[in-house]
Design goal:
427 residues; 21 helices; 78% helix; cell membrane; Tripartite ATP-independent transporter DctM subunit; transmembrane; membrane
Length: 427
């Protein structure tokens, strides 16, 4: 009976009930019908009090900053920067697609936001240049998996809250995994483009003076993620204050530097922020109530004990957890999978000597790959809906990119020294 609420969550979710409502309904059913010793009022109180968290304010601020950047012209400056860097390579626009997602990671922090933006801007241009719609859509979805890994990704903040680790430390740790994913996708694009004859978007490599000019134009956008990291490292502000500063910085740059942000844009910006925040925070508070049930029944300890009975080999355990996360990521939205699994698995890996910051990156990369993978990958649906590509064609075109991301995941999993080098150096 103690595992019945877990079963209820999955039954409701696969019946098309939103994950937040499924989590809350399962928790309520447990404390109403199974554990009748606790008053139901306590569950409702838990639901309300879990929203009174100062660190949670970082989420709407960073979502708002990402939305402002799209209207402020910062995203277009980053795209020009990506073109200058990689447009001369084989498969030029596809390479631009990957690099733009990497640069946008420190801006939007959201895979779906990045995928939607690039579908509207880059995919039509790629089709005009002779790239197939399937290839263009698949690389857009695959590259968008990089965005939440580069700080200040929302999932990085959520994991830091769940695992009680330093937000600044996990932000810094995100750079190397993001670059590994970027390089693996760029190599895959190069191989496919050579076979299909996809040409560069630029006739020749940009001259140094052109590169310097573009760096100068894009410097305001490029400064943001590094400014946040430095501010957190030196104790100038908290993660929540960093989000507020990011909103102010983007607004000032949009109004006074690039001069593309207008007052009337704020209606859409506020709508984007409200929609994005409400969906994320509702899941978090529902998961908090569900976590209360799991703590009451000692579910994390039972799971940890069960997994450690299977093996106490750190590397084999990480392989098992990777497979579990990938499977969950195929069916659950990324944030939901992270919120459900992280509290269960962090005690296991810590007991085996895995750094929780390193494990956080493994988990986030896992669920991002799941977001590209059928049958329910969120980035897959986002890109296919916008471009009108049939799902089966997407699946066929995405296989090489999913393999490339899995290779990156293995490197991230089994080379902890590489991933933890920057946070260990700075902290």
């Amino acid at each position: 009976m103690q595992f019945l609420p877990v079963t209820i969550v999955f039954l409701l979710y696969f019946s098309s009930i939103p994950i937040a409502y499924a989590l809350f309904a399962a928790s309520l059913s447990y404390f109403t019908f199974i554990n009748t010793g606790s008053p139901v009022d306590l569950i409702l109180q838990r639901f309300i009090t879990s929203t009174a968290s100062f660190p949670l304010l970082a989420i709407p601020f960073f979502i708002m900053a990402g939305s402002i950047m799209n209207y402020a012209g910062i995203s277009s400056k980053l795209m020009k920067m990506a073109d200058v860097m990689t447009g001369h390579m084989v498969g030029g626009l596809a390479q631009v697609n990957v690099v733009l997602s990497t640069l946008m990671g420190g801006v939007s922090g959201s895979a779906n936001a990045d995928a939607a933006m690039q579908c509207k801007i880059l995919v039509p241009e790629m089709e005009k240049r002779g790239y197939s719609k399937g290839f263009s859509t698949a690389i857009t979805a695959a590259s968008s998996a990089i965005a939440p890994v580069i700080p200040p990704g929302i999932n990085l903040i959520i994991y830091a809250l769940i695992a009680q680790v330093s937000v600044g430390k996990i932000f810094i740790a995100g750079y190397v995994p993001g670059l590994i994913m970027c390089i693996s996708l760029m190599l895959t694009v190069s191989i496919i483009s050579k076979k299909r004859g996809y040409k560069p978007s630029r006739e020749k490599k940009a001259r140094p003076i052109e590169v310097l000019k573009q760096i100068k134009e894009s410097s305001w956008a490029l400064f943001l993620p590094f400014g946040i990291i430095l501010g957190l490292r030196f104790g100038m502000f908290t993660p929540t204050e960093a989000g507020a500063i990011a909103v102010l910085f983007c607004t000032l740059v949009g109004f006074f530097v690039y001069k593309e942000l207008k007052i009337h844009h704020f209606k859409e910006i506020l709508k984007d922020t409200i929609y994005g925040t409400s969906s994320v925070v509702l899941i978090i508070v529902a998961a908090s109530v569900f976590g209360y049930y799991m703590s009451w029944e000692r579910i994390p300890q039972i799971i940890a004990s069960g997994l450690l009975d299977v093996t106490n080999n750190k590397y084999l355990m990480l392989l098992i957890i990777n497979i579990l996360f990938l499977a969950m990521g195929m069916f659950l939205e990324g944030g939901a999978a992270l919120i459900i699994l992280a509290p269960l698995l962090v005690p296991v890996v810590v007991q085996l000597g895995v750094d929780p910051v390193h494990f956080g990156l493994i988990a986030i990369v896992n669920i991002m790959i799941g977001g590209v993978t059928p049958p329910f990958g969120s980035m897959m649906f986002t890109t296919c809906t916008i471009t009108g590509l049939p799902i089966m064609e997407f699946v066929r075109e995405s296989i090489p990119f999913i393999i490339a991301l899995l290779v990156a995941l293995l490197i991230i999993t089994y080379m902890p020294g590489l991933i933890m080098f920057l946070p260990d150096l700075i902290y």
